Input
Amino acid sequence: MRRRLLAVATVLLAGLAASPPPAMADIAQSGVVSENPVDWTPHVLDGTVWALAVVGDTVIVGGAFTKVTDAGRHTTLTRKNIFAYDLHDGTIRSFAPEVDGAIYSLTAGANGTVYVGGAFKTVNGVKQRGITRLWLASGNRDTSFRAKVNWGDVRALATRGDHLYAAGTFSAINGVGRVGLARMDAQTGTVDQGFDAHLAGPGLSRTRVEHFDLTADGGKLVAVGAFLKAGKDDRTQIAIFDVGGSSAELTGWYTRAFEPQCMKGFDTYLRQVKFSPDGSYFVVAATGRASSAQKLCDSAARFETNRTGEQLPTWVQRTGGDSLYAVAVTGPAVYLGGHQRWFDNPYGTDGNGPGPGAVSRPGIGAVDPATGKALSWNPTRARGVGVRAFLTVPQGLLVGSDTDQLGKEYHGRIGMFPLD
Output
C-alpha cells in the first residue's frame, strides 16, 4: 500500500519545480501518520536541523551542522548548514552551496529554486546577509534576487503568488525600514513599499518576529514574537493581519492570553504558529520555563481565526514545565515537538514530575484538533533541546531536530513518519 501511495505522490510532485511553489501552511492529510519512520532518510551527524522545504521531489534541509551521511551510514559528506536529498529514496543531492552561518528558514521558490533565511552574511563567497535565493540544480545564487537584511537574521519565510514574506530580528531590508516583518517581490527581492506591520516592542531589548504563517489563500497572516504593538494598537506577542491586498491591515482579533510573564528574561515565549489547512484556526507552540495552570507557558493553544475582539484559546495543551518549539496542523492531528516529557499535564511541574492524568509523550506527540487532548500516537524521540521543524508532505510528516533517535530507531536529526 505504501509503495502505491509513493508512486502516486511521485506523479503529483513531478511538475512542481516549474510551477508556483506550494503554500507554507500545512497540507490536509487523510489520517494520523505511522509511528514507524521510514528507513531511507539520510542523517545529519552534528548540530541542529532548523528548517525544511520541498521543491518537486527534493527535500532541502537547513540548520547549523557540518556533516551528513546516507541512510546506511556508508558515506559521509561535508555539508555546512544546508543540503538536499531525494524525497522518495533519500539519495543525497550534489547541491552544496557555501553559507557562512546558521540557516533558520526555507521556503520553496518557483522554477527549481529555494529561498534561504538565517544568520549568514555571505553565500558562495558573496555578501548577501540573511536571505538569498538558490538554484537547486547548481547551488548558485539567483543573482536577480538582491534582498539583504541590515543586521540580525531571518527566522521565517513564505511565498504567496508574486510575494515573498520574511520575518526575523532585522529592522531593514535593502535599506527600507521594516521591523521584524516584510513583504518583497519574489523575483527581485524589492521591498513592498505599501506593506508595513509597524511592529514595536516598547521596553523590550529587541523587537522581532519569531515565526508566522499564512492561510493557504494568502489572505491572512498570523505573527508571533517579541512585540507589544502593531501601529497604535496593543498586540502582546501575537497579531493577525489581512494581507490579501496592498498593505498589512491589522485585524480586530486580539488576545491577552500571552500578557502574563513566564520566567523572567523571556521577551517572548511564543516559538511557532501554524494555521489549519482550511485557515479556520491556528495553534501556537510556547516555551517559558514556568509551569502554571493559569498561564500559557510551556503549552500549545488553539485559537479561532475569523473572529474579532478579545479572544480566549479554544483549548490549551500543557506539558507541565517543558518547552514546545514546533507545531504542524493536518486536520486529523496537531503534531507538537519540543523537549517535553508529558502531555495532558496541567498540574505537573518541571521539578516534581507529572500530575494527575498526564501521559508520556517524550519529545514528540499529537493532540486532537477539536479538544487538544493527547492522541494515542507516541513514537517517542530522544528529547535533546527539541524538534525545530515539521513539514507536511503528501507522503507523511518530516521532522528536523537535534537528536539521533526517532521512533525508537537511529535517525540523525531528520526523519519522516509515513501515512499508512
User: Anything to note?
Assistant: Helices lie at 2-13. The chain has one domain: 2-41+150-418.
